[in-house]
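Quiz preparation item.
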């Protein structure tokens, strides 16, 4: 398949007229063909109009048809073959095994949502039967189900060119909920986006769905992105990226005559607490495992362990020694884009210029363009508590160790943390009481609390929460990874006294979809 550099609007591929967007190979800084002429208000109007036209028909597709459509997208993405991996490697500098793994995750995510759609639990059907004889007042027949919110704008993420981009988690969960999707491609990987976008177009056609179920636009965030978020036909937004980008989109969505939800995943430094007994018994092992997690993918993960918190001790000294030695031996990896490399360099400079951190170790500088040099810094708890700059996300392989004088200081650091995607306790059984004391604080600060693991690596499953209070996300009530992500794009509707024939299938007597329902307070499957 040849890349054409066109906008995918419904079933069409059209050439826009804006400034050219080219991917850049971050390993060489070379521009990659073809150019993608940026879209603008015309393309936003076309895509939103088609999405709105498709909405009522798509949201009522039979569950089996919608499930097979999601599986069909996965099949089409796999059928692209090596071309997809090679283009993604050229556009992101990520290595082949990482991208092959990410393609696997993307497709299994789509298939997971297919099964979620089939099971129908997300409809959350509740029926309270009429009680005409009830005294002193009769009760009418009341039935509830969830329906899709409407067309969703999805922003492709730079750091997951497959799993959080065109056919990634936000798209899969919105399509599963019954929402048409308009994707604003990330300008760093337009070719990868086109390949996946065309795969979705083929699946839409194969399952004879309305063409407006999916569109893919290229262009600037300020024009195409804000254009989508402020279009009255868009009813929700999925975003992964910077705090400034996510916050701007939340503001735009709130300023609309009809405000809409924005599910923005933004910035998290994922604190790891090294508790005393764990440090005492396995400091060196922890130091090495920490550096593996820190250095994975040049640290360009939202779950990168950017903060280590521990009490001063001989164990902490051994941890720093082992982590420092490991960092010096790590290979340096290319970052995703020159812009992300620049932001990383600036973030590292902000830490050093604060005058409040000391260098524990640097990694090797790296030879090629945009190579990420890993860093480990340390600071005191009192400096951390008094300087907000030390909490800023440095997107890349840099982490800061907070040295606390005692357990109380550790608790104060935990209390002062901004909202996080994850919080980790490295603990042994002798640390149980300290962990029990920290847990209520960490639950308030993070979406996922873990023991004896590392935050990188997010399982796509039913129990996962990839969310958390601001600035980790703009809405801590949901998750962007895992099957519960479907709930972001649904809302409940109650049907009072409607004749059976007018009710949606899931609510009818006889339960034609065979879904689990709460009938008069009792679960019936
Ligand atoms: P970004 O700058 O936030 O861009 C993400 C997407 O949002 C792009 O499509 C961009 O459009 C659009 N956008 C940005 N600001 C916007 C605005 N004000 N209005 C409308 N659309 C807007 O993120 P990035 O390019 O992926 O990376 C930049 C930095 O974000 C990184 O250095 C890192 O600090 C952070 N980041 C964090 C995570 C995380 O998971 N925590 C993930 C990725 C990035 P354009 O095409 O115009 O750029």
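Solution:
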């Amino acid at each position: 398949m040849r890349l054409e550099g066109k906008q995918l609007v419904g079933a069409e591929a059209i050439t826009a007229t804006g400034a050219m967007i080219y991917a850049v190979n971050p390993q060489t800084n070379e521009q990659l063909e073809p150019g993608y002429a940026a879209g603008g208000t015309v393309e936003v109007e076309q895509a939103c109009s088609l999405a709105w036209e498709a909405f009522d028909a798509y949201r009522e597709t039979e569950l089996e048809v919608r499930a097979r459509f999601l599986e069909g997208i996965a099949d089409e993405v796999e059928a692209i073959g090596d071309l997809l991996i090679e283009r993604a490697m050229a556009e992101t500098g990520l290595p082949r095994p990482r991208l092959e793994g990410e393609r696997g995750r993307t497709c299994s995510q789509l298939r997971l949502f297919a099964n979620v759609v089939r099971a129908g639990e997300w409809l959350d059907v509740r029926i309270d039967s009429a009680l005409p004889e009830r005294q002193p007042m009769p009760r009418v027949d009341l039935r509830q189900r969830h329906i899709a919110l409407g067309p969703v704008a999805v922003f492709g993420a730079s750091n997951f060119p497959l799993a959080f981009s065109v056919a990634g988690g936000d798209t899969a969960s919105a399509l599963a909920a019954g929402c048409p999707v308009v994707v604003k491609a990330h300008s760093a990987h337009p070719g990868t986006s086109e390949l996946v976008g065309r795969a979705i177009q083929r699946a839409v056609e194969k399952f004879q769905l309305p063409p407006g179920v999916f569109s893919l636009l290229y262009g600037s965030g300020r024009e195409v992105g804000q254009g989508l978020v402020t279009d009255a036909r868009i009813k929700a937004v999925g975003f992964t990226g910077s705090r400034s980008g996510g916050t701007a989109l939340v503001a735009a969505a709130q300023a609309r005559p009809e405000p809409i939800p924005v599910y923005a995943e933004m910035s998290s430094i994922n604190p790891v607490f090294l508790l005393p007994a764990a440090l005492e018994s396995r400091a060196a092992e922890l130091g090495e495992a920490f550096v593996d997690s820190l250095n994975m993918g040049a640290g360009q993960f939202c779950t990168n362990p950017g903060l280590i918190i521990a009490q001063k001790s001989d164990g902490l000294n051994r941890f720093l020694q082992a982590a420092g030695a490991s960092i010096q031996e790590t290979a340096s990896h290319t970052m995703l884009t020159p812009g992300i490399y620049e932001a990383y360099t600036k973030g590292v400079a902000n830490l050093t210029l604060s005058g409040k951190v000391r260098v524990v170790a640097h990694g090797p500088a790296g030879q090629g363009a945009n190579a990420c040099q890993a860093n480990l810094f340390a600071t005191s708890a009192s400096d951390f508590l008094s300087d907000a700059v030390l909490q800023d996300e440095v997107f890349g392989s840099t982490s800061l160790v907070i040295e606390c004088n005692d357990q109380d200081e550790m608790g104060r650091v935990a209390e002062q943390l901004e909202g996080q995607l994850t919080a980790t306790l490295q603990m042994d059984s002798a640390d149980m009481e300290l962990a029990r004391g920290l847990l209520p604080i960490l639950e308030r600060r993070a979406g996922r609390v873990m023991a004896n693991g590392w935050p990188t690596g997010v399982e796509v499953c039913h129990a996962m929460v990839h969310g958390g209070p601001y600035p980790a996300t703009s809405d801590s009530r949901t998750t962007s990874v895992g099957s519960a992500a479907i709930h972001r794009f649904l809302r409940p509707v109650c049907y009072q006294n409607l004749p059976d024939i007018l009710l949606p299938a899931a609510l009818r007597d006889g339960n034609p979809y065979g879904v689990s329902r709460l009938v008069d307070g009792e679960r019936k499957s």
